[in-house]
């Protein structure tokens, strides 16, 4: 077996011949001069064989996967061919994309590594500078997602996430049926979400959306109701419960400020106990809260109202749920607890959008779960300087297109 054949077998080349090689010991580089094997000189568009018109004077260089700590570089003289269909065109390179400077194998491994670890760690394994990997990653994701369109949206969720300190936010649109991110936009105002509906969805696609969920943001609610005529909007259960817990906590804080030193001892440690759902409380916790009936009636009244509101989520019939909600609102107003008066205003304003939960059981839980993954990625990278860089990683990890799977199958090696 010749050395050239040994190198070709070792690196598992398919459709490629090694004509020469050179080791650079100082730079730890293996330079390989390669050429097509059997079916060369193909048109990159129609894959038909073409007549060679000329051979380029300069070599082109591609970076391949490192082996045993050595960087591997391909050297090749590109040729221009004449295709009967597309005319004069540069030949197809089976090992890389037309304008790439890395091979498909390198690209696949780079994408998978960046899904699992920081770019700095991936660059160290691949023996390239971090800035080079960052640029290559952006080009690869941009090329693979070029021309990709949002399809099959029926249930969407909309939420915002902070991507940089200084109150910089991004709006994220989720496909809740497939549990993935379909769009990321800068800002969280009405003009941001309008951009998604106007430029990325057709009127037909908007009409196909049947369900939508979001928080109580006026911008998101207005955009969904204006752009999606057939969609039923369901306000997220998590944010409603969050506002209810906030009202209970405001009552607790008010009583804490008014309490004496001895009375504060009895109120200490109640914050997280009041937040807890009835299904997660022990009998001891319930006895502690019931003792407030004599110790502090206002906090006890707030806790009872919170526990009673939990029954709303178990109703099956919308008319029964609406009747319960109206009775609960009356009871809350009679309690004369000001924070609950503010919460009642929210319920009255959005009652129609809250009652839609009974028929759909739809929540933004999937979106919140994806948000958690996005935050983990952001914290792992210690933040991102720009939204485009952050968007690339979002699409790579939880996007609607499996980006590494777009690399040709025979080059997906790990």
Key attributes of the depicted protein:
48% helix; 414 residues; 12 strands; four-stranded mixed beta sheet; Nucleotidyltransferase, domain 5; elongated; alpha/beta; five-stranded mixed beta sheet; 18 helices
Overall description:
It is a single chain. By secondary structure, this protein is α/β, with parallel strands linked by helices. The chain has three domains: 1-95, no CATH class; 155-236 and 364-383, Ribonuclease H-like superfamily/Ribonuclease H (Nucleotidyltransferase, domain 5, 2-Layer Sandwich), CATH 3.30.420.10; 242-360, no CATH class. It has 18 helices and twelve strands. The protein has helices at residues 3-10, 104-116, 119-126, 130-145, 190-199, 203-208, 218-227, 237-258, 261-267, 271-275, 283-290, 292-295, 297-309, 318-334, 338-349, 351-360, 365-380, 387-398, and strands at 16-24, 29-36, 51-55, 60-67, 70-76, 79-83, 87-90, 155-164, 168-175, 180-186, 211-214, 232-235. The chain has a five-stranded mixed sheet with strand order 10-9-8-11-12, with helices on both faces. The radius of gyration is 30 Å and the shape is elongated.
Residues in helix, %: 40-55%
Distance N to C terminus: 26 Å
- Please tally the β strands and state the result: 12
- Count of DSSP helices? 18
Q: Tell me the domain tally.
A: 3
Mean pLDDT metric: 89
Structural class: alpha/beta
Write out the strand line-up for the largest beta sheet, numbering strands in chain order. Answer: 10-9-8-11-12
How would you name the oligomeric state of the polypeptide chains in this document?
single chain
Give the low-confidence spans. Answer: none
Backbone CA Rg: 30 Å
Gross geometry: elongated
Biggest β-sheet description = 5 strands, mixed
Q: DSSP strand (E) fraction?
A: 15-25%
Order of helices and strands: HEEEEEEEHHHEEEHHEHEHHHHHHHHHHH
